[in-house]
Protein backbone atom coordinates (compact mmCIF):
# COMPACT_ATOMS: atom_id res chain seq x y z
CA UNK A 1 0.00 0.00 0.00
CA UNK A 2 1.23 3.50 -0.81
CA UNK A 3 0.03 7.05 -0.52
CA UNK A 4 -1.82 6.90 -3.82
CA UNK A 5 -5.31 8.37 -3.84
CA UNK A 6 -8.10 8.11 -6.37
CA UNK A 7 -7.90 10.98 -8.87
CA UNK A 8 -10.48 13.63 -7.99
CA UNK A 9 -12.03 13.43 -11.44
CA UNK A 10 -12.33 9.66 -11.09
CA UNK A 11 -14.76 9.73 -8.16
CA UNK A 12 -18.33 9.50 -9.39
CA UNK A 13 -21.84 8.52 -8.38
CA UNK A 14 -23.91 5.93 -10.19
CA UNK A 15 -27.26 7.65 -10.13
CA UNK A 16 -29.29 4.52 -9.35
CA UNK A 17 -28.28 5.26 -5.75
CA UNK A 18 -30.05 8.63 -5.92
CA UNK A 19 -33.25 7.57 -7.69
CA UNK A 20 -35.61 8.95 -5.02
CA UNK A 21 -34.07 12.46 -4.93
CA UNK A 22 -33.76 12.45 -8.74
CA UNK A 23 -37.46 11.70 -9.13
CA UNK A 24 -38.23 14.80 -7.04
CA UNK A 25 -35.56 17.21 -8.33
CA UNK A 26 -33.11 16.00 -10.96
CA UNK A 27 -31.10 19.22 -11.46
CA UNK A 28 -31.01 19.99 -7.73
CA UNK A 29 -29.77 16.47 -6.97
CA UNK A 30 -26.89 16.84 -9.42
CA UNK A 31 -25.91 20.20 -7.94
CA UNK A 32 -25.87 18.77 -4.42
CA UNK A 33 -23.72 15.82 -5.53
CA UNK A 34 -21.25 18.28 -7.03
CA UNK A 35 -21.21 20.23 -3.76
CA UNK A 36 -20.29 17.03 -1.89
CA UNK A 37 -17.32 16.68 -4.25
CA UNK A 38 -18.40 14.22 -6.92
CA UNK A 39 -17.03 15.05 -10.35
CA UNK A 40 -18.71 12.43 -12.54
CA UNK A 41 -21.96 10.48 -12.74
CA UNK A 42 -23.32 7.40 -14.44
CA UNK A 43 -26.89 7.81 -15.66
CA UNK A 44 -29.45 5.15 -14.73
CA UNK A 45 -33.00 6.14 -15.60
CA UNK A 46 -34.14 9.37 -17.20
CA UNK A 47 -37.12 10.23 -14.93
CA UNK A 48 -38.99 11.71 -17.88
CA UNK A 49 -36.14 13.95 -19.05
CA UNK A 50 -34.53 13.86 -22.48
CA UNK A 51 -30.85 13.17 -22.98
CA UNK A 52 -30.43 16.83 -23.95
CA UNK A 53 -32.07 18.00 -20.74
CA UNK A 54 -29.99 15.71 -18.52
CA UNK A 55 -26.82 16.89 -20.26
CA UNK A 56 -27.85 20.49 -19.55
CA UNK A 57 -28.51 19.65 -15.87
CA UNK A 58 -25.08 18.03 -15.58
CA UNK A 59 -23.31 20.88 -17.34
CA UNK A 60 -25.03 23.37 -15.04
CA UNK A 61 -23.89 21.37 -11.99
CA UNK A 62 -20.33 21.05 -13.30
CA UNK A 63 -20.58 17.26 -13.51
CA UNK A 64 -19.39 15.05 -16.35
CA UNK A 65 -21.61 12.17 -17.43
CA UNK A 66 -19.35 9.20 -18.21
CA UNK A 67 -21.88 6.50 -19.09
CA UNK A 68 -25.51 5.48 -19.29
CA UNK A 69 -27.14 2.14 -18.49
CA UNK A 70 -29.18 0.87 -21.45
CA UNK A 71 -31.29 -2.29 -21.34
CA UNK A 72 -30.25 -5.39 -23.29
CA UNK A 73 -33.37 -5.10 -25.45
CA UNK A 74 -31.98 -1.89 -26.95
CA UNK A 75 -29.34 -3.95 -28.79
CA UNK A 76 -32.08 -4.80 -31.29
CA UNK A 77 -34.48 -1.95 -30.54
CA UNK A 78 -32.89 1.25 -31.90
CA UNK A 79 -29.29 0.71 -30.79
CA UNK A 80 -28.27 3.62 -33.03
CA UNK A 81 -30.64 5.86 -31.08
CA UNK A 82 -29.22 4.63 -27.78
CA UNK A 83 -25.70 5.41 -28.98
CA UNK A 84 -26.75 8.86 -30.14
CA UNK A 85 -28.24 9.58 -26.71
CA UNK A 86 -25.03 8.61 -24.92
CA UNK A 87 -23.11 10.91 -27.23
CA UNK A 88 -25.59 13.69 -26.42
CA UNK A 89 -25.05 13.04 -22.72
CA UNK A 90 -21.30 13.41 -23.27
CA UNK A 91 -20.57 9.87 -22.10
CA UNK A 92 -17.83 7.59 -23.35
CA UNK A 93 -19.40 4.25 -22.38
CA UNK A 94 -22.76 2.64 -23.08
CA UNK A 95 -23.48 -0.01 -20.46
CA UNK A 96 -25.76 -3.05 -20.58
CA UNK A 97 -26.62 -3.59 -16.89
CA UNK A 98 -27.74 -7.23 -17.04
CA UNK A 99 -28.82 -10.07 -19.28
CA UNK A 100 -32.41 -11.32 -19.44
CA UNK A 101 -33.07 -14.27 -17.13
CA UNK A 102 -33.57 -16.65 -20.04
CA UNK A 103 -29.99 -16.01 -21.23
CA UNK A 104 -28.32 -17.01 -17.95
CA UNK A 105 -26.95 -20.26 -19.40
CA UNK A 106 -23.72 -20.96 -21.31
CA UNK A 107 -25.69 -20.92 -24.56
CA UNK A 108 -27.35 -17.67 -23.57
CA UNK A 109 -24.06 -16.02 -22.70
CA UNK A 110 -22.64 -17.12 -26.05
CA UNK A 111 -25.68 -15.62 -27.76
CA UNK A 112 -25.07 -12.40 -25.81
CA UNK A 113 -21.38 -12.46 -26.78
CA UNK A 114 -22.35 -12.55 -30.45
CA UNK A 115 -24.82 -9.69 -29.94
CA UNK A 116 -22.22 -7.66 -28.02
CA UNK A 117 -19.72 -8.13 -30.84
CA UNK A 118 -22.13 -6.53 -33.31
CA UNK A 119 -23.23 -3.81 -30.87
CA UNK A 120 -19.64 -3.13 -29.83
CA UNK A 121 -18.64 -2.48 -33.44
CA UNK A 122 -21.49 0.00 -33.84
CA UNK A 123 -20.46 1.72 -30.59
CA UNK A 124 -16.85 1.94 -31.75
CA UNK A 125 -17.95 3.57 -35.00
CA UNK A 126 -19.63 6.27 -32.90
CA UNK A 127 -16.54 6.82 -30.76
CA UNK A 128 -18.04 4.97 -27.78
CA UNK A 129 -17.23 1.75 -25.93
CA UNK A 130 -19.73 -0.93 -24.94
CA UNK A 131 -19.48 -2.21 -21.35
CA UNK A 132 -21.31 -4.95 -19.44
CA UNK A 133 -22.22 -4.58 -15.75
CA UNK A 134 -22.21 -7.77 -13.68
CA UNK A 135 -24.36 -9.21 -10.92
CA UNK A 136 -23.54 -12.11 -8.62
CA UNK A 137 -25.33 -14.76 -10.70
CA UNK A 138 -23.12 -13.92 -13.69
CA UNK A 139 -20.35 -15.85 -11.91
CA UNK A 140 -22.33 -19.08 -11.67
CA UNK A 141 -20.44 -22.11 -12.98
CA UNK A 142 -22.22 -24.44 -15.38
CA UNK A 143 -20.39 -27.57 -16.51
CA UNK A 144 -17.13 -26.07 -15.26
CA UNK A 145 -17.67 -22.81 -17.19
CA UNK A 146 -18.02 -19.47 -15.40
CA UNK A 147 -20.76 -17.63 -17.29
CA UNK A 148 -19.11 -14.21 -17.01
CA UNK A 149 -15.89 -15.57 -18.48
CA UNK A 150 -17.70 -16.45 -21.71
CA UNK A 151 -18.12 -12.73 -22.41
CA UNK A 152 -14.49 -12.03 -21.53
CA UNK A 153 -13.24 -14.80 -23.78
CA UNK A 154 -15.59 -14.56 -26.76
CA UNK A 155 -15.80 -10.80 -27.38
CA UNK A 156 -12.73 -8.88 -28.53
CA UNK A 157 -11.38 -6.48 -25.89
CA UNK A 158 -11.76 -3.49 -28.17
CA UNK A 159 -15.48 -4.27 -28.61
CA UNK A 160 -16.49 -5.03 -24.99
CA UNK A 161 -15.24 -3.81 -21.66
CA UNK A 162 -16.77 -4.18 -18.22
CA UNK A 163 -18.18 -1.97 -15.49
CA UNK A 164 -17.11 -4.25 -12.66
CA UNK A 165 -19.46 -4.17 -9.68
CA UNK A 166 -17.17 -5.09 -6.79
CA UNK A 167 -19.94 -6.12 -4.40
CA UNK A 168 -21.44 -8.51 -6.93
CA UNK A 169 -18.09 -10.02 -7.89
CA UNK A 170 -17.45 -10.99 -4.27
CA UNK A 171 -21.10 -11.99 -3.78
CA UNK A 172 -20.61 -14.30 -6.76
CA UNK A 173 -17.63 -15.95 -5.09
CA UNK A 174 -14.89 -14.39 -7.21
CA UNK A 175 -11.92 -12.06 -6.67
CA UNK A 176 -11.82 -8.69 -8.47
CA UNK A 177 -8.03 -8.58 -8.25
CA UNK A 178 -7.76 -11.90 -10.09
CA UNK A 179 -9.82 -10.46 -12.93
CA UNK A 180 -7.66 -7.32 -13.11
CA UNK A 181 -4.56 -9.49 -13.35
CA UNK A 182 -5.89 -12.07 -15.82
CA UNK A 183 -7.69 -9.62 -18.12
CA UNK A 184 -5.73 -6.35 -17.97
CA UNK A 185 -7.37 -3.25 -19.31
CA UNK A 186 -10.89 -4.71 -19.59
CA UNK A 187 -12.43 -2.82 -16.63
CA UNK A 188 -12.52 0.96 -17.24
CA UNK A 189 -15.27 1.58 -14.68
CA UNK A 190 -16.06 0.20 -11.24
CA UNK A 191 -19.20 0.15 -9.14
CA UNK A 192 -17.77 0.72 -5.68
CA UNK A 193 -20.34 -0.90 -3.43
CA UNK A 194 -19.49 -2.32 -0.02
CA UNK A 195 -20.55 -5.64 1.49
CA UNK A 196 -21.92 -5.64 5.04
CA UNK A 197 -21.09 -8.53 7.36
CA UNK A 198 -24.66 -9.83 6.96
CA UNK A 199 -24.28 -9.85 3.18
CA UNK A 200 -26.35 -6.73 2.53
CA UNK A 201 -25.22 -3.49 0.87
CA UNK A 202 -23.15 -1.00 2.85
CA UNK A 203 -21.81 2.50 2.35
CA UNK A 204 -18.27 2.56 0.98
CA UNK A 205 -15.85 1.94 3.84
CA UNK A 206 -18.55 0.66 6.20
CA UNK A 207 -18.42 -2.95 5.03
CA UNK A 208 -15.84 -5.70 4.73
CA UNK A 209 -14.44 -5.30 1.22
CA UNK A 210 -10.73 -4.47 1.20
CA UNK A 211 -10.94 -1.59 -1.24
CA UNK A 212 -7.30 -0.44 -0.82
CA UNK A 213 -6.06 -3.90 -1.82
CA UNK A 214 -8.45 -3.98 -4.78
CA UNK A 215 -7.57 -0.46 -5.93
CA UNK A 216 -3.86 -1.19 -5.69
CA UNK A 217 -4.39 -3.45 -8.71
CA UNK A 218 -6.92 -1.23 -10.46
CA UNK A 219 -4.35 0.27 -12.81
CA UNK A 220 -3.69 -3.14 -14.37
CA UNK A 221 -7.45 -3.53 -14.78
CA UNK A 222 -7.61 -0.27 -16.71
CA UNK A 223 -9.84 1.48 -14.17
CA UNK A 224 -10.61 5.12 -14.96
CA UNK A 225 -13.80 5.67 -12.95
CA UNK A 226 -14.72 4.72 -9.39
CA UNK A 227 -18.52 5.08 -9.27
CA UNK A 228 -20.20 4.84 -5.88
CA UNK A 229 -23.33 2.73 -5.75
CA UNK A 230 -25.70 1.63 -2.99
CA UNK A 231 -28.79 -0.27 -4.13
CA UNK A 232 -30.91 0.38 -1.04
CA UNK A 233 -29.65 3.30 1.06
CA UNK A 234 -31.65 4.22 4.14
CA UNK A 235 -30.85 7.86 3.39
CA UNK A 236 -29.30 8.38 -0.05
CA UNK A 237 -27.70 11.67 0.97
CA UNK A 238 -26.03 10.20 4.07
CA UNK A 239 -24.83 7.33 1.89
CA UNK A 240 -23.53 9.69 -0.82
CA UNK A 241 -21.59 11.78 1.70
CA UNK A 242 -20.14 8.85 3.66
CA UNK A 243 -19.11 7.01 0.51
CA UNK A 244 -17.55 10.10 -1.07
CA UNK A 245 -15.46 10.83 2.01
CA UNK A 246 -14.28 7.22 2.17
CA UNK A 247 -13.11 7.26 -1.44
CA UNK A 248 -11.58 10.76 -1.29
CA UNK A 249 -9.57 9.90 1.84
CA UNK A 250 -8.59 6.38 0.83
CA UNK A 251 -4.90 5.48 0.40
CA UNK A 252 -3.94 2.40 -1.54
TrEMBL record:
<protein>
    <submittedName>
        <fullName>Sugar phosphate isomerase/epimerase</fullName>
    </submittedName>
</protein>
<feature type="domain" description="Xylose isomerase-like TIM barrel">
    <location>
        <begin position="31"/>
        <end position="235"/>
    </location>
</feature>
<dbReference type="GO" id="GO:0016853">
    <property type="term" value="F:isomerase activity"/>
</dbReference>
<dbReference type="InterPro" id="IPR036237">
    <property type="entry name" value="Xyl_isomerase-like_sf"/>
</dbReference>
<dbReference type="InterPro" id="IPR013022">
    <property type="entry name" value="Xyl_isomerase-like_TIM-brl"/>
</dbReference>
<dbReference type="Pfam" id="PF01261">
    <property type="entry name" value="AP_endonuc_2"/>
</dbReference>
<keyword id="KW-0413">Isomerase</keyword>
<dbReference type="InterPro" id="IPR050312">
    <property type="entry name" value="IolE/XylAMocC-like"/>
</dbReference>
Amino acid sequence: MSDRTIPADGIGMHLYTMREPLAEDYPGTLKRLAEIGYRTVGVSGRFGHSAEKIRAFADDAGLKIVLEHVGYNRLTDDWEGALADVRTLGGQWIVVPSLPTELRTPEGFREAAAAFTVAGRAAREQGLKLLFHNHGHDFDEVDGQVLFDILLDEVEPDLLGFELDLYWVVNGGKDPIAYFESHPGRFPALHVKDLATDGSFADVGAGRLDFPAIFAQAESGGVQQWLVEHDAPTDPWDSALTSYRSLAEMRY
